[in-house]
Amino acid sequence: MKEQKPITVLINGKATAFKEVQKEKESPTKEIAAAVYTEETTGWEIIDSEGSGKILDFKKVVSTVPRPSALRKKWSKRRMVLMDRNRNTSLFSKKFITAVIAAILTGCTFGGIILMLFTGETASTQSETAAAQQASASSKAQAPATIPSISMDFHAAQNGLFSTKKKAEEISKDMKDQGYAASVYKQGANYSVLIGLGNKKEEARALADVYKFKGVEVWPKQLDASYTDLKIPHKMDEPFIVNGKILLQNVITLSQVPTLSKKAKDSIMKDYEGWKAYGDKQHEQWPAKQEKAVRNYEKDISRALTRLTANRPGEVDWPLQQAVLDSFVSYTKLLEVLK
Fold first, then answer.
1. Where are the transmembrane segments (predicted)?
2. Is residue 144 packed enough to be buried (19+ CB in 10 Å), middle (13-18) or exposed (0-12)?
């Protein structure tokens, strides 16, 4: 046996040593070849095979797989499309949008046909149904309704509580003659002479302190002016009544602010104009007593807003406080009418 020749083979970059055994009659190996099968049609090419002891490096060679002519043409077209960089592949291309619209129209048409076949309804029938539902909703809005509750908690500066309306009116007139604000408000079986009003205790107390400083007798008092089960001729009148309360509460608070910004003035006037516009449109459908009560409140709150948005003196604006008290009394009389 002859001497073994070492051979190092590099496959995919990894070196492996081999020894070749030769018999006496065998000739020395001149070439080494390798074949590797992959999913692609590939071959391996020997870069260097001469001389013993040298590193053999194999290079992968990918060859084209023969295909039938039809498949070759199809593959060729596909490659051309993929290589076309100017092709519009946007999700919202014209062709895509057109296809979507066509699908929607087709679906709607087909759905309408199926609906007609199984229910006998047409588009006109559906329109008539919708119109009937709208008319029903409108009739419900115009139907009589009940306001469960209008809750009003105020804090007042009170000059006195009297058992007769005549005595209360005499005291109220005397206060006005002195240049102050005063209104008569019925509380149960008695009559109260109110000379100041606030949404909060602090607001009423501030007015009471002014009266005390001027030597006028005053007693702070909490007023519960809540009403329940109010009857209204139309359901849509409820927001009008509720917004009337909110408008009054805002006027009461702002009446104690020395100076209002333009934004605050514009905001409250916008609220008032929207509230009044509904009353102007609806008043002909109200009973005479309700219409009269609404008009009285509208007159008083309008007078309060006129004073509120005008340039006011730095001290207490007594005409404004009078308009606020009158607005409170006229609003409670409106609620009394709805009982």
1. 96-118
2. exposed
| Per-residue pLDDT at 130 exceeds 70 | no
| Cα–Cα distance, 319 to 233 (Å, whole number) | 35
Q: Whole-angstrom Cα distance, residue 192 to residue 155? A: 13
The per-residue pLDDT of the chain, averaged, comes to 74
Residues with Cβ < 8 Å from 193, sequence gap 6 or more? 158, 159, 160, 161, 162, 168, 171, 172, 175, 182, 183, 184
* pLDDT greater than 70 at residue 106: no
Total-model pTM = 0.60
Q: What are the structural domains of the chain?
A: 1-87 (no CATH), 94-141 (no CATH), 146-337 (3.30.70.1070)
303, pLDDT greater than 80 = yes
Q: Which residues pair with 155 in a beta bridge?
A: 198, 222
